[in-house]
## 1
Amino acid sequence: MSQSAPLLSVRDLKVHFEIKGDSPWPWTPSRWLKAVDGVSFDISPGETLGIVGESGCGKSTLARAMLNLIPATSGSIVWQEQELFGASRQTWQSVRKSVQMIFQDPLASLDPRMTIGQIIAEPLRTHYPAMTSTEAMQKVRAMMEQVGLTEQQINRYPHEFSGGQCQRIGIARALVMEPKLVICDEPVSALDVSIQAQIINLLMELQSRMGLALVFIAHDLAVVKHISQRVMVMYLGRTMELATKQAIYQDPRHPYTQALLSAIPTPDPRRERHKKLQLLQGDLPSPINPPSGCIFRTRCPKAVAGCAVQTPGLRALNTDTQVACDIV
Ligand SMILES: Nc1ncnc2c1ncn2[C@@H]1O[C@H](COP(=O)(O)OP(=O)(O)O)[C@@H](O)[C@H]1O
Ligand code: SF4
Ligand SMILES: [Mg+2]
């Protein structure tokens, strides 16, 4: 694991949404949906943390809370030694110069009325209003080239581009600010498999050229394997396992990680034949009324009676792996 001081430290972060029922009685108590419920991790300069979990596990909410696009309910977000929980708008505004986001749906995240040049230049105009148009356009052209777009495309509109190209535009828009950290929320989930690899390779290339740290979110462990140094597996708003890439793919310890991993086909046909498939039983429980004790117990093939009572915290098994399960 990296020894340098973390760029970002998240501790016990919670994002709870109030769910207003349809009861006509005003005194009916509110219910809470715990989308993120006590998540902690660090990100070092230049590293990639993969975040994985089924749809509805709180990945996007966590990503948005890291940028205050959704306010966190409690916890701590320390960016370069500065506490951001409860920080002023100005503080967040200045952090957003260094932390950028790339979204899942490339076309939907681009304003259809703006040209590609205007879209990529927008963050520069917001954060550096004194920058001249010539300077901004110079940066935009240089960035377009870096992501594999051509200068001739600068006055075109988003609908004229394919999904993969739209994601290149989204990447250019995020990177034109020369950020230190980019949070990528399922940036390849909407793309064809062949295009996915191109976009992941492009991100890795730009990462090493610009020294970026990345948070790379996906719902599938296969997608984050190539790009991540460490991987965090989330289930219903909590971390089930946080481990180095080597540990998570060679020796997954949490039953949920093992199930996610067993669903990925291996290239070796002999191993594939002998692989024990651990399919997840049932659906994701409602996050408004989650299971008692271990939140994964209703789908866990290894659950014992005590799992309904004790809520396992994340504990270190060794220097590579932290796991939230009491029986491993
Ligand atoms: N604004 C909101 N209000 C209420 N519930 C929300 C809101 N945003 C997300 N949720 C709920 O929070 C949970 C986590 O959602 P999300 O973070 O989008 O998960 P993921 O990105 O892992 O699919 C889901 O149950 C979702 O329905
Ligand atoms: S604590 Fe129990 S239910 Fe939870 S993952 Fe471990 S064995 Fe499964
Ligand atoms: Mg999401």
## 2
Amino acid sequence: MKITDSIKYVGVYDGDIDLFEGQYKVPGVSYNSYIVFDDKIAVMDTVDARKTNEWLANVEAALNGKAPDYLVIAHLEPDHSGSIQAMADKYPEMKLVMTAKALSMLPQFVDAALAARAVAVKENDTLALGAHTLQFITAPMVHWPEVMLSYERSEKVLFSADAFGTFGNPETDPWLPEARRYYFNIVGKYGAPVTALLKKAAALDIAAICPLHGPVLTGDLSEYVGKYQVWSSYAPEEAGVLVAYGSLHGNTAKAAKLAADMIREQGAKVTVVDLAPGTIWPLPWQKPSNMTSCCWPAPPTTAISSPRWKTSCCT
Ligand SMILES: [Fe+2]
């Protein structure tokens, strides 16, 4: 799939994954990867090992007999590093471009010998491909320490790593509901690093955002950036009051509802939620139509076998 005349999408969609990162129920997820074609050819990230063969076939078809010069590695989490070894084995002349931090972590994910083919880059380093130039932007703890983004200067394309990613099928699912859920489950506790990254991004003229999950974002990017500004600052998306309660015998429930009525009488928008298991929560992001279960406010970050998961999810 063409992003621009020189940039192609070669990612894959994983529609039958059971739990993303072993814990999040998702309506599928894409592992995105791109190729920048110029005098030199750069492949932007690999994919989860679940999809290595399909992805390599996409890459080979897009390359049409050529060999890539660089593999740019934004993030080493296995949903993106799972095919580095296979790619490096297939193209033995290809260099691996990553941050020094990523290089120090690399042997945990691939054969240690691959480090000899690595090119370590730092903040604002550039890689000239011909008419295209990649500028590297570090983004530590968005959401691992080695993360970097790449900005292609000539076409103003930002390869944003996991930032601006979302669950779901990039061709059919809307960005916002699952992007919100993705953000708060994957990077939500790293608000300060995300805010720092947004400041760096504000200095760039961006025409398209190419994340590692979900659709390529084009057109008016203010909606997406605006949501990230709200989420990373822990500001509410809507002004209002949330009254959440658990009630063993119903008395706390009565008190909570009474409190909600009193607040409502003051003119505030009030949402009341019963935290008891089995409640179907009336919030838009909890149950995509193609899912059979839901969690509030999102799946817990503990293992699926944990008590917290069992008490947080309803079916
Ligand atoms: Fe990811």
